[in-house]
Amino acid sequence: MTLGHGRRATIRDVALAAGVSISTASNALNGQGRTNAETRDRVKRVAEEIGFRPNALARGLLSRRSHSIGIITNDTYGRLTLPMTAGVSEALVDHGVSVFLCATNNDPRLARLHLEALLDKQVDGIIFTATRLDLAPPVDLSSLPMPVVYAFAEGPDTSVSFVPDDSQGARLAVEHLLSLGHRRIMHITGPEDFVAVRRRAAAYRACLDGRGDKGEVMFGPWGEDWGHEAVRRMLARPEPRPDAIFCGSDETARGVIDALRDHGLSVPADIAVVGFDNWHVVAAQTRPALTTVDMGLKELGRRAGLAMLDLTQGKPVPLGIKALGCSLVVRKSCGAV
Amino acid sequence: MTLGHGRRATIRDVALAAGVSISTASNALNGQGRTNAETRDRVKRVAEEIGFRPNALARGLLSRRSHSIGIITNDTYGRLTLPMTAGVSEALVDHGVSVFLCATNNDPRLARLHLEALLDKQVDGIIFTATRLDLAPPVDLSSLPMPVVYAFAEGPDTSVSFVPDDSQGARLAVEHLLSLGHRRIMHITGPEDFVAVRRRAAAYRACLDGRGDKGEVMFGPWGEDWGHEAVRRMLARPEPRPDAIFCGSDETARGVIDALRDHGLSVPADIAVVGFDNWHVVAAQTRPALTTVDMGLKELGRRAGLAMLDLTQGKPVPLGIKALGCSLVVRKSCGAV
DNA sequence: TCCAGTAGATAAAAGGTTTTAGCATTTCGT
DNA sequence: ACGAAATGCTAAAACCTTTTATCTACTGGA
Question: φ and ψ at B221, to 5 degrees?
Answer without folding.
Answer: -70, 155
